[in-house]
Fold these 4 entries.
Entry 1:
Amino acid sequence: MELTKQVYAQTKAFPSHELYGLTSQIQRAAVSIPTNIAEGAGRSTNKDLCHFLSFSIGSAYELETELSLAKEFEYISADVYEDLHLQLIEVQKMLYGLINKHQNINDGK
């Protein structure tokens, strides 16, 4: 959720013509990461949780691409991009860890 808050703070400065374009896409991808985690956690099986965690990973990769575009368009600085990107990599690692943990539970390991 911290990453999502930081993404929102950065997108406030994006050009107004991007409001319904890249700004919206970045914000939706950022919000999708924790909301899919929450939805999966509310499901009754580990298989369902893993399914929603995989959606979160997809959103994380989508966000990674969109942040890269924002840097290329000079909507965010290289330093801001690097900070957000490092946080995003940590989120991706945590998601993969959670999936592996819960898949092992499904497999009886």
Entry 2:
Amino acid sequence: MNGPFFAIALLVVAGALTAIQGPSNARLSNGLGSVVNGAFVSFVIGALALGILAAALQVKPEGQEVRSIPWWGWLGGLYGCLFVTSIAWAVPRLGVATTMTLVVAAQMAISVVLDHYGAFGTTPQPTSLARIGGILLIVGGVLLVRRG
């Protein structure tokens, strides 16, 4: 169950749910009067779900490992706040497809830079013409989706 097939399947499902998350949170935000309210409720529900999952799996952090986390390791929730809030705001204005293709293009561009330098403790993956070409194709896809 830990093989590449499971990882790929999980990421495909996560990607699909991310596309659904945008309009869901946009509708939630609209009903609650602001994207901040919608994002807050979204995070509360997510935190509850994670709490239940952690309890069911009986996972807990180890003291020494927690103390070894660098300061930037604690910032993922802040990135998630910006992600959820900005997508909930953008979907009604740009549409789901344009919003998500812009997100993917930005993710890929910064990912190549992070890979190149081995940032945040990752294994360096040198930038290549093929990787740059892939990003340019994604940017072209953004333009096609936006015009289409």
Entry 3:
Amino acid sequence: MKQVIVMRADLKMSRGKIAAQACHASLGAYKRADKNSIMKWELEGGKKVVVKVNTLRELFEIHELVKSAELPNYLVTDAGHTEIPKSTVTCLGIGPDEDEKVDKITQDLKLLK
């Protein structure tokens, strides 16, 4: 079981902003997961991985695949109070769900460093 956060790397956000956006994505997707998946994920340690895409278009392509696979997900749109304009889509939370289901969509994405 895992959760993956797909972050846009083209926005040039500070580390703190990235962390905040990842938290929004994580909690948003978590709230949309079924109770059995949540319980299993938590019992296995709550694994999270943060990966990146280079464009909004790539993020939307991943989002469409996630929706088609019926994985719990949450697309984060920023409120615009700090570093980036209001309504900027920053990242996507996927899962928690089974590793195989999530990896089928995200396995080729590079880790955010």
Entry 4:
Amino acid sequence: MKQQLLPTSILSIAIVLAGYFISQTYIKGKKLERTVLVKGLAEREVTADIATWPLELTVSGNDLAQLQQTLQRQTKMLQDFFTEKSYTDEELRIGAPTIQDNRALLYGGQSNYNQDRYIAKVEFTLRTTKLMNLNEAMYQIPNLVGRGLIIGSKNTWQPVQYAYTKLNEIKPEMIEEATKNGREAAEKFARDSGSKVGKLKRANQGYFSITDLDQNSGIVKKVRVVSTLEFYLED
């Protein structure tokens, strides 16, 4: 009888010990899984480095031959204006002219029409990095209007569109700043909970956004990135 109890007792003790060690391993493992999830923010104000200015030249008249001559002459005037500002043909793109017959648009082909029959338009698109020259050109463009040119911007709310193209140059520093700010937030949480911040478990860089600093001026941009960071917590 005693010989039968001995193996049973040994098996029971082994099961108890195995359960103990398994439970201890589970507890230690759970301690390692204590983490805190935070957001790290980085923002910067930058100046746009490229601008796009879409313009439209309009000419009207009743004689097609004369309209064509006027359109060619005024197109040359506007082109010369930008050439004097040191803009090249690569920066200034001139589109093909379009001509609209207003009389043909009237219902029934009415002949009683007191406006110019033909309206011709040519699109100009200036895309440049010479922003100081661009400001000078914008101030002087009314001089051409005084010489008989009808010039308008295709974007009435924001005539010039500004863009920032050097994001890759500031990305590493901004990611480092966002990570630093995220760790500071994690450390504050850890102090409040009586813990310490350990190693970084995982990080999600998030996405960069570039927006106008305000709605009145697009030349100054705000670059923003939000990183999601998860840190281990230690006792």
